[in-house]
């Protein structure tokens, strides 16, 4: 009888202790925190933007305990942007590679966007890119020389780029004299190599100013197989493009010799800042964690592609944008880490 009473007392004490500790135990951090899943949309396979998506996804999965990321191939930046515009349910868990010009076009509801969308916010830069024309014909030196030639200006999935280049041809007075082809950038390089067209777009990334560039994979391939020459745009034609279509891109000049011995003159093309962006519905703490991963692993991006060597502590906030265009989670990260917003 005495033992039974003792057991009752002990059990009662244990129950009281368990009940008393429950609030404390429930407030303790979980040992396996809930994982927030995101998708990162890059460009087409073979493009530096797709490699960038793969790089960030792998670094997130390796170094974050709260996020899981999947890299997704996208036909173009336009298509990624339209995904967020037309499918609102994707906004809280989608990251895209974008450019500042697309934000302006979408916010104005201008082509290729059919309605206004002002939800995109920028997070961190991944590169300063330049696109310009390339050819295998040493006699073609400027846009004027493309008159009567067959030229690829990208596929129709990137209507903004098509519109920009048509505006440049119009300003130069050769729009009606150029035989336009609409091929994706890798396909355009292949067609140029095979002699099917006379010129196409080449894309490079500035790694270290003023003259250290990394070529996109498709440009590197054709440069290793053929002697490539570089066709300059006129900065006045690029200004005409901006006057006509809005503040899209700027003229950028790669100094002579930057692309090799066949580049005997400065190469003028369209310059653009590219980076990761998301709708403002992507949670602030998720964006903060993405910034942390980029910051702490900035030196790892170049191992995925030389064109990603631009990613660094010093450049990741260099959008050249006002604070209202930045994601709040990114702004909080930059404030905490003492990083000032800047521009190239």
Helix run count: 10
**How would you spell out the order of helices and strands?**
HEHEHEHEEHEHEEHEHEEHH
The helix content is 25-40%
> Distance N terminus to C terminus?
85 Å
Structural class: alpha/beta
Instruction: Bin the strand percentage.
Output: 15-25%
The number of distinct structural domains comes to 2
**Low-pLDDT segments, ≥5 res:** 6-11, 13-32
Q: What CATH architecture of the largest domain do you see?
A: 3-Layer(aba) Sandwich
Instruction: Report the C-alpha radius of gyration, rounded.
Output: 26 Å
Mean pLDDT: 88
Strand count: 11
CATH level 3 topology of the largest domain: D-Maltodextrin-Binding Protein, domain 2
Overall body shape: globular
Q: What does this protein structure show overall?
A:
By secondary structure, this protein is an alpha/beta fold. It has two domains: 36-127 and 273-336, D-Maltodextrin-Binding Protein, domain 2, CATH 3.40.190.10; 130-272, Periplasmic binding protein-like II (D-Maltodextrin-Binding Protein, domain 2, 3-Layer(aba) Sandwich). Helix content is 37%, strand content 22%. It has ten helices and eleven strands. It has helices at 2-27, 48-63, 77-86, 100-108, 159-172, 185-193, 217-225, 235-245, 284-296, 328-336, and strands spanning 36-41, 67-72, 94-99, 120-135, 150-152, 179-181, 199-208, 212-215, 229-231, 250-254, 267-279. The strands form two sheets. Strands 1, 2, 3, 4, 7, 8, 9, 10 and 11 form a nine-stranded mixed β-sheet that branches. Strands 5-6 form a two-stranded parallel sheet. Helix 5 (159-172) crosses helix 8 (235-245), helix 6 (185-193) runs parallel beside helix 7 (217-225) and helix 9 packs across helix 10 (328-336). The protein is globular. The N and C termini lie far apart (85 Å). Mean pLDDT is 88; it is low at 6-11 and 13-32.
